[in-house]
Each structure stands twice: as structure tokens, then as C-alpha cells.
Write a structure and sequence with these properties.
With 817 residues, this protein is an alpha+beta fold. 49% of the residues lie in helices and 17% in strands. The chain contains 24 helices and 22 strands. 45% of the residues are buried.
Length: 817
């Protein structure tokens, strides 16, 4: 018999055996399907987040160039002058370096109403770098994106072309208005290009300085995302070395802006959507994959125990086949073939289950109307991972019982009855597997408990403001082409109208909201201090009206708030938070002191008040320096109307929207929602909630699998002691005595598993710690809570077979051998 015929014979024989044991087959397939399913779903997410290259030419060679503050290691974007300098000096390691920035503008066809769209401003070499070619017209040319130019051209994203222009092929050459300014459509991008700002799909592309606005000469303004492609023969380490030398040269050449700035070259897929996500992306993906691998391990142990019990019951069959000439290798091959067939069935079902789960996850939407786009679809990498997990699991779970049973004493196996003892060594193997199951389950439940506790702590945390009973209404009159004078008049009218609405207690305007997706920071310097004393200090900022602190419930701990007297004619003033005051003037009163943007010739800004330190950028941030300037002194047409209400905020939204539209019916209003809901964004509670739900789901799944496995093992081991139980009962043992004996054996395994799980959890605590809010990864309350919960459920799983054993008729038990 050749190898192919032998394999076919093994497959046919395995098929017959699986049909003969439908319950065992179904249990194994379901268990493997659950394990493979959660692995497929989570790996689909990880693949989309940090593994899948951008769908452009040589996407795997794309890197992100980030600036890094050498004092606090914060990763940020680049300034335009720095990008230009690096681009001109790195031709030997990069094919090119392009820059882009994202934001929102108003898009309107001629004579139509504007709609807020996500925009990407690009340098002129952006599309050539990515080798993106339009389906209609052309892309923005390099000379249209050059410094100092203001060419009024625009390129449409494919979905925008379909949705706003009905797929009209004559759209090229038409005029649209972008924030009130006429622009010519010059091209439409292909459908498979969704931009380079991850999880979003920009609808419009413009030259970086299309509006003619200044600011490109400022090396302190590091808000540009820098994208580069490595040359084919260049590794990222060599590129990093080259960039380090250039960064040192720029630090010497421009000490006021670059002295404390280094450069990091990062794989593009690890720095999504922004540079500062680099570390959390990699660690978060590693933690999630580790958790689902643990779930797969618990499932595999379950299956191993089931197959081990099944193989033990076939000892006589295997002994007869061996006596007829089948070698040990032949027996092992047969049993491994069975397990691989089970793995194939379970893996196939798991891939379907995981694909469905990934699509459910992709349908998630963040609060607000930010155009987030998740693509967790199955691709070759995900399929290869799922197949590998299934096959490796099938091979391992088949080898353990195959090697164990095929190596047994054949003569003894032939003499034993079908239900004879499996031997002490076999019991030991099952005991070790049970301990491993409980230990892994402990780790998963501990992770679930830590993430859930972290969510509870985050929800109780002091954010530095009172989020309840506030309604946010975002608007940008710049999308209508309003001048500053028109904008100021409009907002004054909005203020008067909204205040008269019943239920409005306080209201104010601000440029952005805490933990929102619009963030602004400035490098600052204090008057009278050495130029390099706080070099590289960057502080977040917000532009707010005088009522802002009262509306938001932000405490002014020293000095005063803004007043109506802080206007265009008065001296520039600001409020700083306590953290910025402690950095610039440690141990001194900051009131009356002055600061300004570092390296600029702007007027000095006088501090009139100090606020408490809160959360500004995202939930997990360390205390950040922050300051506020009055909106009367620094005009912005992009504002958030924040209304504190005496009724549920959403109930007041229609009346407020009507009041605004009565003044300007064409003004787009967006993200109209309560502050509480807005805090559920990707920079707020969303990651904590996702982590808590995911970890809790995996923990409960592992608990169910472990308990089913423990029940099965204890049931099997108890059935092997039927004769012993009959003897004990014949000499006077009561049912309670039998229960205690069985529970004693089970409880030893449970205690060993709990101890091992605690040690593993403590060893891995440092990895998880950076993703927790307000608690330690060794939180005693969580760890102390997990042990009795898991232990109690495990003992219940042991108690059921114990009670069944105690109810056996002694005469039947004695006849079992």
C-alpha cells in the first residue's frame, strides 16, 4: 500500500469512527470552533489595525517619520520646514518623503448647501510617492502644493464622487466651493484608495497650503504627518541612523526649535492613526493575541482530555491492531489523522464564526459623526493564521493521546476489560491538563476583572470638569465663507437666542472639547527665563468664551476667569492649568507673569488665573500643561456651543438647532450630542469599554470551557474508580464520604491551578499595566475576587460527578470489574 492509499484508508477509517461517536465529535468540533473563532476575529482586528499594509504600491516599505521630545519621549508629527530639510538630505535611504494633514471643511457645489467633509491637505509629492493614479482627470501636481502657492484645485475621493456627484464622469473641470472659496475639480481617486489616515476615508484632497494661509515657516508647528518609502535595499535601522545624524545637524542649526527634538522612523502600520499610538498599538495587539491564544489553549486542553479518554477506551482495539502487525507509528498516524479531521471541521466552523464576529466589530461606530471606517474582512493573512491555529491545535491534541495510548503494554491491554483502569500515569496527565486549564482561566478572568475595574475607575475619575447635563453643538461658519466680522456678529446672535430657550442654565463657546479629535498645542516660553530652560515644552491650548469655566464646571483655583473686558483692545491674557504653572514657575505665584509661543515675536500673554489640571487629550494621559485664551482676543469660526441644561441635554437639542438654523439655515451642525456621550470617543472611554467587554467575554468563554473540561475529566476519573467506590460503600462508607473523597481529589487540582494562575498573572502584570486606568495590574481586590469565583465554579463542576458516584448501587459497582 503506497502512502496515498494508506492516507486515504486512514481518512475513511477516521470518518467511520467519528460517525460512531457523534456526541464526542460534536463536542470537539464545537470546542475547537469557539477557540478558532475568537482567534480569527481578534486576529482580523489586529491585522487591520497594525499588520495589513496600505493598499498602495510597496505598502510594506512605507514608514512614518515622527518627531520626539527628548525630555518626555512624546511622539508627534513634523513641521513643514523639517520635512523639506529631511527630504533633501535622505535620497540614499528614502525614495521620497511626503506630508499630509487632516481636518474638516465645508464642500458645496455651485449654488448648493455646504456639507462638512473630511479633508486631507497634501504636499505636491504625496500621490507620486504612493503611486496613486486617478480614475478620472489628474491628481494634484507637485508645483500646486509648493510652499507659498494657493492653487485652487481639489481632488475627490471615490465615495464622495459617487455620493455627492452621482458618479458624473464630466465632473472634472467643474467648480465647487470649499469653505466658501471656489475650487476646480481636477480628478477622482480610485475606489481602493482610502487615504493614509487610518480608519477614515477622506472625501477631499487639497494642496497643503491651498488657502494661502501662513504658518509653514514655523518649525515649532509639528502637526504634519510625514510619510516616506524606504528604498528596496534599505532597512529601517539604516534609515534611523541617517535620520539621527540629520536631526543632530538641525538641532545645531536651529537651536530655538530643534534642540530637544529627535526623530523616530516607524513602520507605517504600527503608527496608526497617529504617531503617538505606536507603543499602545503594539502592546495592545500583543495583549489581545495573548488572551485569545490562552482561550485556544483552554479549548485545546479540553479536546485533549476528551480524546485521551476516548483513546483510553480503545486500548483493546489498538492492542489487537498492534498484535496483527500495526507498528506504533502506524497507530499514532491513524489517531493523529482523526484529530486533524476534527481540527479541519472545527477550524472551518471557527473561520465562519470569526468572520461573522469580525463583521459585527467592523459595524461599531464611535459617538458623533466622525467618518470612521473599519475594515476587518478576511484576507490571506487572517486565513493563514486561522488554518495554522487549527492545524497546530489538531496536531498537538492528537499527539498526546496517540503517544500515550500507543505506548501502553499491549499484553496488559488485551487482558484488561474495556473499562479497566487507565493507570496512574494516565491520571497524572489528565491532572496536569486540568491544572493548566484552571491556571489559564485564572489569567483570563483576572484580565477581565482588571479591565472591568479599570472601566469603573475611569467612569468615577475626576476629569477636571463636570460632563453631566452638557450639550455640545459643533459648527464652523468658515464653511460658509464668513469673514471674521460676520462670524462675530453671528455668534453674538446665537448667544442671545439660545439663552432664552427654557432649560438653558449656562452656555459658552470653545474651539474644542476635552478628549475630542481636534487638538492644538504650542511650544511656549516664559518671560525672563533662559531661552533653553524649558526648551521643547509644548502646552495644549483652547480658545474659550468668558462663560466657559462656569459652564464646564472647571475650577479656577487662583486669580480670575475671563471677563468681557478681555477683548481685542485689551492686553492679551490667558489662564493656565496648575501643571503648566508648576513647570514654568515652580513654587511661585504665576498671576501677572507672562509667556508666549516659543521663538516667536508675538506679544507676551499675561496670566490672570490658574485652573485645576484635568484631562485634555485622552483618558490615559499623564498630567499635561494646558492654557486657555479668550475667544474675544483670538477669533475662530470653528466653535463648539456648550450648553448646560436643567433637562436631559438631548431633549433640548431640537430647540437649540432650530434657533441656530433660524439665523443661518445653510450652516452644517454636527456632533450634536451630550458631553457624556462625546466622552465615549476613541480618545475617551471607548478603548476602556472595548477592553473591558472583550476581556470579560474571553474570560467567560474560557471559564465555560474550563468548567466543561473539568467536569468531563472528574467524571471520567470517577468512572474509573467505580469498583473502588463499591468496595468503600460495602465496608460502610456513606454517600457523604464518597462525595468528600471525589471532591478532595478535584479540589487539589483546583488549588494547584489557582496557585499557578496567580503566579502567571503576577508575572505578566507589567505588560497589562499601561492599559489600565486608576488601578494597578496587581490590584489585590481583583485577584482576591477571581480565586473564590473560579474556585467555587470549579468545585461545582467537581461536585456533580461526585454526587453521581455516591448514588451508585454498591452491588453494581462491585460487578463493574
Amino acid at each position: 500500500m503506497n502512502a496515498v492509499d494508506a492516507l486515504w484508508h486512514d481518512v475513511l477509517f477516521a470518518t467511520r469512527l467519528l460517525r460512531k461517536s457523534p456526541i464526542v465529535t460534536a463536542a470537539v468540533v464545537l470546542t475547537l470552533a469557539l477557540g478558532v473563532g475568537v482567534n480569527t476575529a481578534v486576529f482580523s482586528v489586529v491585522n487591520a489595525l497594525i499588520l495589513r499594509p496600505l493598499p498602495v504600491k510597496d505598502g510594506d516599505r512605507l514608514v512614518v517619520i515622527a518627531s520626539q521630545n527628548t525630555s518626555n519621549r512624546t511622539l508627534r508629527g513634523m513641521s513643514f520646514p523639517d520635512v523639506q530639510d529631511y527630504r533633501g538630505s535622505t535620497r540614499d535611504v528614502f525614495e521620497d518623503i511626503a506630508g499630509y494633514s487632516v481636518g474638516f471643511l465645508g464642500l458645496a457645489p455651485q449654488g448648493g448647501r455646504p456639507e462638512r467633509v473630511l479633508v486631507t491637505w497634501i504636499t505636491g509629492n504625496y500621490f507620486p510617492l504612493l503611486d496613486v493614479r486617478p480614475v478620472l482627470g489628474r491628481v494634484i501636481q507637485p508645483d500646486e502644493g509648493g510652499r507659498g502657492r494657493a492653487d485652487a484645485v481639489v481632488v475627490l475621493g471615490y465615495s464622495t464622487w459617487q455620493r455627492r456627484f452621482g458618479g458624473d464622469r464630466s465632473v472634472v473641470g467643474k467648480i465647487v466651493r470649499v469653505n466658501g472659496q471656489p475650487c476646480t475639480i481636477v480628478g477622482v481617486l480610485p475606489p481602493d484608495f482610502v487615504g493614509t489616515f487610518a480608519f477614515s476615508e477622506p472625501e477631499l484632497y487639497l494642496p497643503l497650503n491651498w488657502s494661502g494661509a501662513g504658518g509653514f515657516e514655523n518649525r515649532q508647528a509639528r502637526g504634519l504627518h510625514a510619510l516616506a518609502r524606504l528604498r528596496p535595499e534599505v532597512r529601517i535601522e539604516r534609515a534611523q541612523t541617517a535620520m539621527n545624524l540629520l536631526a543632530e545637524r538641525l538641532a545645531r542649526q536651529y537651536p530655538d526649535s530643534n534642540a530637544n527634538v529627535s526623530v523616530k522612523v516607524l513602520p507605517e502600520r504600527f503608527a496608526r492613526p497617529e504617531e503617538d499610538q505606536y507603543r499602545s498599538n503594539v502592546r495592545g495587539a500583543a495583549i489581545m493575541l495573548a488572551l485569545v491564544v490562552l482561550v485556544m489553549t483552554v479549548a485545546a486542553v479540553n479536546v485533549t482530555n476528551l480524546l485521551l479518554a476516548r483513546a483510553t477506551s480503545r486500548r483493546q482495539e489498538l492492542a489487537i491492531r498492534a498484535a496483527l502487525g500495526a507498528g506504533r507509528g502506524r497507530l499514532i498516524r491513524q489517531m493523529v489523522t482523526e484529530s486533524l479531521m476534527l481540527a479541519a471541521l472545527g477550524g472551518g466552523a471557527g473561520v465562519l464564526l470569526g468572520t461573522w464576529a469580525a463583521r459585527v466589530l467592523a459595524a461599531m461606530r464611535l459617538p458623533g459623526d466622525l467618518p470612521v471606517r473599519f475594515d476587518f474582512d478576511l484576507d490571506g493573512r487572517v486565513l493563514a493564521y486561522a488554518v495554522t491555529v487549527a492545524l497546530v491545535t489538531g496536531l498537538l491534541v492528537g499527539l498526546v493521546p496517540a503517544v500515550r495510548v500507543s505506548g501502553a503494554d499491549l499484553d496488559r491491554a488485551l487482558r484488561q476489560s474495556r473499562h479497566g483502569s487507565a493507570g496512574t500515569h494516565g491520571h497524572r496527565i489528565r491532572g496536569v491538563l486540568v491544572v493548566a486549564q484552571i491556571a489559564f482561566c485564572f489569567v483570563l478572568l483576572a484580565a477581565a476583572g482588571l479591565f472591568v475595574r479599570s472601566l469603573l475607575e475611569a467612569q468615577r475619575a475626576d476629569l477636571g470638569f463636570r460632563a453631566e447635563s452638557i450639550l455640545n453643538v459643533h459648527m464652523d461658519v468658515g464653511q460658509l465663507g464668513y469673514t471674521e466680522a460676520q462670524g462675530r456678529t453671528f455668534f453674538e446672535q446665537v448667544d442671545r437666542r439660545v439663552r432664552t430657550i427654557p432649560g438653558v442654565e449656562d452656555m459658552s463657546f470653545a474651539f474644542t472639547i476635552p478628549m475630542g479629535y481636534i487638538r492644538v498645542s504650542n511650544a511656549v516660553e516664559a518671560e525672563g527665563q533662559p531661552v533653553d530652560s524649558n526648551k521643547g515644552l509644548s502646552a495644549g491650548t483652547n480658545i474659550v468664551s468668558s462663560e466657559y469655566f462656569q459652564t464646564m464646571g472647571i475650577e479656577v483655583v487662583r486669580g480670575r476667569s475671563f471677563s468681557d473686558g478681555d477683548n481685542e483692545q485689551s492686553r492679551p491674557v490667558a489662564l493656565v492649568n496648575q501643571h503648566l504653572a508648576d513647570i514654568l514657575w515652580p513654587g511661585r505665584d504665576p498671576i501677572g507673569r507672562r509667556f508666549r509661543s516659543a521663538g516667536s515675536d508675538e506679544a507676551w500673554v499675561e496670566i490672570v488665573g490658574v485652573t485645576n489640571t484635568g484631562k485634555y487629550g485622552f483618558l490615559f494621559e499623564d498630567p499635561q500643561p494646558y492654557f486657555y485664551v479668550p475667544i474675544a482676543q483670538q477669533y475662530t469660526g470653528l466653535r463648539v456651543l456648550q450648553v448646560r441644561t436643567s433637562r436631559p441635554p438631548e431633549a433640548l437639542a431640537p430647540a437649540i438647532e432650530r434657533a441656530i438654523r433660524a439665523l443661518e439655515p445653510n450652516l452644517p451642525l454636527y456632533d450634536v450630542q451630550s458631553m457624556t456621550r462625546a466622552l465615549g470617543s476613541g480618545l475617551g472611554f471607548f478603548p476602556v469599554r472595548v477592553g473591558a467587554v472583550s476581556a470579560a467575554s474571553l474570560g467567560l468563554l474560557a471559564l465555560a470551557l474550563a468548567m466543561v473540561g473539568l467536569y468531563g475529566v472528574i467524571s471520567y476519573l470517577t468512572s474509573q474508580r467505580t469498583h473502588e467506590i463499591g468496595v468503600r460503600m460495602a465496608i460502610g462508607a456513606t454517600q457523604n464520604d464518597i462525595v468528600r473523597v471525589v471532591l478532595h481529589d478535584g479540589s487539589k487540582l483546583v488549588l494547584l491551578g489557582l496557585a499557578a494562575g496567580l503566579l502567571v498573572t503576577l508575572a505578566c502584570s507589567r505588560v497589562v499595566g499601561s492599559f489600565l486606568f486608576g488601578i494597578s495590574a496587581r490590584d489585590p481586590l481583583t485577584l482576591v475576587s477571581v480565586a473564590p469565583i473560579l474556585g467555587s465554579v470549579a468545585l461545582i463542576a467537581c461536585a456533580i460527578p461526585a454526587w453521581r458516584a455516591a448514588r451508585v448501587d454498591p452491588t453494581v459497582a462491585l460487578r463493574s470489574e
